[in-house]
Protein: Centromere protein N
Organism: Mesitornis unicolor
Amino acid sequence: MDETVAEYIRRTVVKTPRDEIKTMLQKWGFLSETQLQTINFHQIKENISRDVVQLCEENSADIKQAAALDIIYNHIYPNKRMWSVYQMSKRGEETDFFDVTDFKKKFKRRLRSALKNVTINFREYEDDAVWIRIAWGTPYTKPNQYKTSYVVYHSQTPYVFISVSVLKSNLPLLCQALVAASNYHDIREMELRSHSLNSLKDIVFKRYSQNFQTYYPKPLQERNIALESADLRIVQENRNEKERILRVNKEVFGDGPQPKLEFAQYKLETMFKSDPEMNVLDKKEPFRCVVKFSSPHLLESLKSLAPAGMADAPLSPLLTCIPQKARNYFKIRERKGFFPGSFVSP
């Protein structure tokens, strides 16, 4: 077994939590149950990794098996990587039968026609997801197995989830191969990024239920003028206001936890409003800007603004529409306010 393969397998085992190493190796399937029973999984991870490498040497493991183990590791721990969402589109409404074997052949052929030194590995999962691992090289160097890109493609949807390596210059080649292999015409980034792959899937696959634009201002309850103490009135008013904020927040964001989104961006086109007689603007052109949001947990951060007293309730639709906009890519026109424009998909 090559020393590079042995070291890669060793590192994959070491970075896995000790209590989960055996489960991961069982999913890998390269080592038999009899071989796994010879390993003491209660010892330190360095010793476990040494025993695993020794067994892999007996089975003559190569880079293909090492890459398969890496795919399993990333499937179990997808939050170790940063993921971006891409959407593919076709010219018409035609639908093609998806053949995973044909997809793999086209993807490899297209990518290797542009770059010879590249290793490509696939693994299929039950949710119609094809996981692709790409290790990039250069015209003069072998593929670097520690600087890999990952693609998760759900064959029944136009969405692709990509985690690029530090070699971002290869991203156009990767996108071209995806479009050619899946029989689509174009691909574009949706400007949604997160370490939580499942949260991104919940948003674009509409598995996340959120109430939008359901809040309508309700008249405040009449204050109890019978209260004799001003302090009691203040306490009661504060309590009522907190209850109102929590109720409104629930109507806007729903009951459950929010998907873990870390980055969102959209483009805004809007017209300035001014008195026609003042003639402030000579040209009737829209004002254009790019709005970016980033946070370790963007949607939960927005949800906490009003209860924390940092924003009025309900929040502006400019803030609460992010998941909905990402899913539908439609234009939202405001009826009132200073920004009667529309959101334009990036």
User: Anything to note?
Assistant: Residues 245-333 form a domain with the Ubiquitin-like (UB roll) fold (CATH 3.10.20.720). The chain has three domains: 3-78, 83-204, 245-333.
